[in-house]
From TrEMBL:
<dbReference type="InterPro" id="IPR004761">
    <property type="entry name" value="Spore_GerAB"/>
</dbReference>
<feature type="transmembrane region" description="Helical">
    <location>
        <begin position="223"/>
        <end position="246"/>
    </location>
</feature>
<dbReference type="Pfam" id="PF03845">
    <property type="entry name" value="Spore_permease"/>
</dbReference>
<comment type="similarity">
    <text>Belongs to the amino acid-polyamine-organocation (APC) superfamily. Spore germination protein (SGP) (TC 2.A.3.9) family.</text>
</comment>
<feature type="transmembrane region" description="Helical">
    <location>
        <begin position="48"/>
        <end position="69"/>
    </location>
</feature>
<feature type="transmembrane region" description="Helical">
    <location>
        <begin position="275"/>
        <end position="294"/>
    </location>
</feature>
<feature type="transmembrane region" description="Helical">
    <location>
        <begin position="306"/>
        <end position="329"/>
    </location>
</feature>
<keyword id="KW-0472">Membrane</keyword>
<feature type="transmembrane region" description="Helical">
    <location>
        <begin position="341"/>
        <end position="364"/>
    </location>
</feature>
<feature type="transmembrane region" description="Helical">
    <location>
        <begin position="148"/>
        <end position="169"/>
    </location>
</feature>
<keyword id="KW-1133">Transmembrane helix</keyword>
<keyword id="KW-0309">Germination</keyword>
<keyword id="KW-0813">Transport</keyword>
<feature type="transmembrane region" description="Helical">
    <location>
        <begin position="119"/>
        <end position="142"/>
    </location>
</feature>
<protein>
    <submittedName>
        <fullName>Spore gernimation protein GerB</fullName>
    </submittedName>
</protein>
<dbReference type="GO" id="GO:0016020">
    <property type="term" value="C:membrane"/>
</dbReference>
<keyword id="KW-0812">Transmembrane</keyword>
Amino acid sequence: MEVFVDKQLGENLTVSSFYLWFLLHGTQTGIAMLTFPSKIILGAEGEAWVSILITGLSIHLIIWMIFFVLKHSNHGDIISLHQQLFGKWFGNVLTLGFYGYTLMFISTQIRSYVEVLHVWIFQLSPPWEMTLIILLTSIYIVSGGFRVITGICFWCVIIPSLLLVTLYFPLKYAHWNNFLPLLNHNIAEYTESAQRSLPLFLGVEFLLLYYPYIKNNEKSQKWAHIAVAHTTLLYMFFACVIFAYFNVEELKHTIWPTLILSKIIRFPFFERFDYIYVFNWFLIILPTICIGLWGGTRILRKTVGFTARPALWITSIIVFIIIVCLKGSTTIDRLDSLMSMAGLIFLYGYIPLLVLWISIIRFFKRGSLSARIKSE
């Protein structure tokens, strides 16, 4: 049974606030890392790394806003906050809207990765088979509970990080003049690249669901900021390596530049090192899928009243159906664009509106309290 104490669950259900670093960073690093260089150059070109920095800094502000709204939630999550602000019925409708966002988030990660597997390795395997394997693996992990998911996030951040040393190989062929001239673009171009880099940072919004599972959560904000800084620096490093290896025109015609880099790595005992990269990406997207499935399960439990296991299977089946219906690279690109737009609206539109609404309520409550004191 879940017992809330100061917006925090019981000791046996929570994890140390230190793990918020890996929970947030693990959900932010996903399939978008494979394609982002060829997308963000369409604005600021070789200086798009500046736009990554701008987006990363803005996410720190979003983190502050998320902690602000959760501080005023009765049970420390967006589910109870919606009911608090908008009533039980309409609040649950808004939460189910977030459930739809979660389904789209999971589907984007899995379908994009399945497309990579299909093109690079398993050309003869139908996408639904690979989707089923990924989902069943994720269901098994999520069934273990939030603490198991946290452990998966930890190791799925640590293990793939070991491959960062392989970026030494493309750096041997770097053309540093690709970055010149510096700061040669206008604000509109930097803004366009910043908007295109937003999918890299999606995942931070799931803090709105698992906040009660963090010990001393009201004091854990520093770990969230460390996670976002870690993510920002990682993307900037990847972007700089790729921009130094490819020129702008090459990137415009490259779908997965991050994977292309792995093809130049050669060892006498291992020819196709790019296979390591492709399979390694399963570890990278696994935290995003698990957190998404867990979040969807929690929403169904708290709004519709399902128990955990049926809610998990219902969420997984819906995701499977969505993915099976997505056929062709054009459809996948449309899903990516839709996910990016939904993330932009949610992070930079809806969350600031919640902050504004809570601030207005607090202002009027203080005003009415002051009027009572004066009248007495």
